Amino acid sequence: MTSAVVDDTADQDVFGGVDSHADTIHVAVISDNGGHLADAEFTTTGAGYAAALAFVAAHGHVIAIGVEGTASYGAGFTRAARSHGHQVVEVNRPDRAERRRIGKSDPIDAYAAARAALSGRASSAPKDDTVAGIRALHNAARSAVKARTAALNQIGHILITAPDTVRAKYGQLKGTDRTDALARLRPCGDAVHTAVLTALRSLARRVKELTAEHEALTKALDSEVTVHNPGLRASYGVGPDTAAQLLLTAGGNPERMRTEAAFAALCGVAPVPASSGRTNRHRLSRGGDRAANAALYRIALVRMSHDLRTREYVTRQTTAGRTKKEIIRLLKRAIAREMFRCLTTTVAVPGIADLRPLRQSRNITLTAAAKHFGVWPATISTLERGIRRDDDLAHAYRNWLQAA
Q: Which of 265, 302, 249 is nearest to 127 (CA)?
C-alpha cells in the first residue's frame, strides 16, 4: 500500500529507507525531522529500481538512503542508487529488543532503515563490486571443500558397517590411498557387496573430482587476489583463501573503514570494554566478522610455526606468564593492524623474479643453496617461485648469489 503525498514537499530534505528481498523491495521516505512521508513496494528489476528512486526523489531533496542488505538482496538497488549520485549507507537489521517492541513488517523495517540513515546510526558506505569476482570464486571453492568433506565422511560411515571383507580391505587405508583404491573398484559379488562397493566407488570418484575442482578454483582465486592486492597476498602466512576472505570483509573500497581500530573491531579482535562501577576491565569480542577472525587466526598459527620473529615473540610472552590463547589474541590484534595497512595503502612487494635465473647462471643447486642458509630446499624453491615471502632471506640470498 502506498501512502498519499499530502502537499508539495519538493524543497524539503528527505531520507530514504529500503527493506530488500529477493523479488521486491519496500521503500520508505521520511522528512529531515523524522516524520513519515510515504512508503511503497517495487520489484527487483531495472524498471523497479528506477521507479523506486523516482518515488523517493518526488518527496524532496534526497540526503541519503539507508539500505538493509547492500551486499545481498539490496545489491541491485544499491548499484542503481549510486549510479544516480545518491549517497547510500549500509543498515544493519534492527536488534531483537526493538523488533519485540514495535514488531516486524516490510514498512516498519523500511522506515527503521530511513531513521538509521537520518540519525547517523548507519553511516558505513556499502562495499563496491570490484571484489564480486573474488567473492564468487571464494564461495565456490569453499562449497567444493564442504562437499568433499561430506563425501569423505560418508565413505568412513559406510566402511564402518560394510561387510567384513570390504572393511578389512579398505578400512585400514588412509587419505588418498583409500580414495584411489575405491575409485578403481569394480563392484562384484552378491547384492549387498555390489551395492556397497558401487556406493564407495561413486563417493571416491566424487572426492577426486571435487579435489581437482577445488585446486582449479584456488588457482583462479590466487590469480584474482594477487592482481587485486599484491601486497596483501605477499604478506607472510597469507594464502589465497585467507587473502580473499580479508578482501571480502574490507570490500573493494577499504576507505569505508576509517581507522585500523575500526577494522580490528570489524574482525572481532578488538577488546570490548566491560567496566562497571569500580570494575575496570575488557572482555573478548564475540562479534564482528567471524570468517575474518578465523582468517587472522590461521595467519597467526602459520607465523607461530614458521616465522622466526613471531616464534621469538611467543617465547617472550610465554616467559612473561601468558597462556597460548592470550598470545594468539595479541597476535591477531597485531596482524589486524598489518592487514589494514595492506588493505588501505599500496605496499611495495620486493621482486624475486631474478633469484632463480641468478642461481641457475651460477650453476648452484637448490640443495647447495639450502645447505648454506640452513633451510630445506623446498624453502628456497617456494621463495624463488613467490609462494612464500621472506624479505630478509630473499635479500641475503640475492647478495650471496651475486657474490658467488
A: 249
